Amino acid sequence: MKSAIEIRDLTKSYGDVRALDGVDLDVPEGSFFGLLGPNGAGKTTFINILVGLVRKSGGEARVFGHDVEADYREARDCIGLAPQEFNVDRFFPIREVLEHKAGYHGISQADAKERADEVLKRVGIHDKRDTRFDWLSGGMKRRFMLARALITDPDLLILDEPTAGVDVQLRHELWETITDLNDRGTTILLTTHYIEEAERLCDEVAILDSGRVLEVASPDELMDRGTDDIVVQLRDPPTAVPDFAADDDRVDAVELDGSRLVVTAQQGGLVAPDVVQALDRDAHEIVDLEISRTSLEEVFVEMTRQDEGRATMEVEQ
Ligand SMILES: Nc1ncnc2c1ncn2[C@@H]1O[C@H](COP(=O)(O)OP(=O)(O)OP(=O)(O)O)[C@@H](O)[C@H]1O
Question: Shortest CA distance to 83 belongs to which of 126, 30, 141, 19?
Answer without folding.
Answer: 141
